[in-house]
Amino acid sequence: MIELTAFKEQRIALALSDYLRSLGIANHIEVEPDRFAIMLKSADDTERANHELDGFLHNPNDARYWQASWQTGQFVKATANPNDTSINDILHNLWARSGVFTLLISVICIVAYIALEAAGQPVFDALSYPQYINDLKNTHEYWRLLTPVFLHFGALHIIFNLIWWWDLGGLIERTQSKMQLLGVFLATALLSNFAQYMSFGAGFGGLSGVVYGLLGYIWLYPLVNPRVGFRINPAIVMFMVGWLVVGYSGILDNVLGKMANTAHLIGLLTGIVLGVVFGLLHRVTDGDKKGM
To answer: Any catalytic annotation for residue 28?
Structure first.
């Protein structure tokens, strides 16, 4: 093994390491007490890797580095043998792409799905949006303004939503914080639920409004604050926006049922606004810290 370079921040090391891997330059990261070292597996790659290192140091915020990290999703383990892959490694990799809050929401959705399949209407009545919001003054069931996001109506529905939640929510949690993800989750869930209710009434469910909110947030935040350690592949944005357009067209209603299109749109717009606001806020505060 040959050490190429080392960084004090894990996310910086991951960005370069993943980019080198995307070019076919085999490497792994060794975790040390105060640094993350990128180790090349072959001496033949040294010259090429050094050339790429120079480019990275010159412009580490270039989108290609962060897109490679998104696509590769490498994880770091201090005692890992880079030549071994096991179920444990896969689980570690999944966990490295998320966090406690990401896992908590996933578990709640799964439990709610199983309960809905087993008990049906009573579970739906307890978690669905109230038929008349004014009734909340008497019932005090305020949780129902949020809990429709935990309801899913079929295996494909919950699998699709949880895959996107795990990737997008996990990205925010591991690169920013649990509280940041919680704030985005609550804002997009409450606003997308309310908008869907105002457009079509109660009886909807699913995490997709939140997923679109996360997409909007992750899309705009790094454009406003380029110093952040993540980027989103533009192809993902195009796919999700395309899916939103397909939903509004109604072509798949007979196959997938009526989609919560208003929740998707308002979730996306809420996420975009949050991405811009928090991006600007953090850019200013990060600049102030840097100047101190």
So the answer is: no
Q: For residues 122 and 168, state if they share a domain.
A: yes
**DSSP state, residue 257:** -
Helix, strand, or coil here: 207? Answer: coil
Per-residue pLDDT at 234: 84
End-to-end Cα separation, the chain, in angstroms: 39
The residue behind tokens 């921040």 is 9
Contact between residue 111 and residue 119 where contact means Cβ atoms under 8 Å apart: no
Tell me: do 71 and 137 sit in the same domain: no
pLDDT tens digit sequence for 81-136: 444 445 565 555 566 667 899 999 999 999 999 999 999 899 999 999 998 888 88
106 flagged as catalytic:
no
Give the largest CA-CA distance in the chain.
Answer: 73
pTM of the model: 0.68
Domain that holds residue 34: 2-84
12 contact partners, CB below 8 Å, separation of at least 6: 36, 60, 229
Residue 12 lies in a domain: yes
> How far is residue 122's CA from residue 109's CA, in Å, rounded to a whole number?
16
What CATH number should be reported for the domain holding residue 62?
3.30.70.2350
- Between CA 68 and CA 71 the distance in angstroms is 5
Strand order in the sheet with 35-40: 2-7, 35-40, 27-32
- Secondary structure letter of residue 9 according to DSSP: S
58, 152, 208, 249: which is the annotated catalytic residue?
208
217-271: pLDDT as tens digits: 999 998 888 776 667 878 888 988 888 888 887 776 665 556 788 999 999 999 9
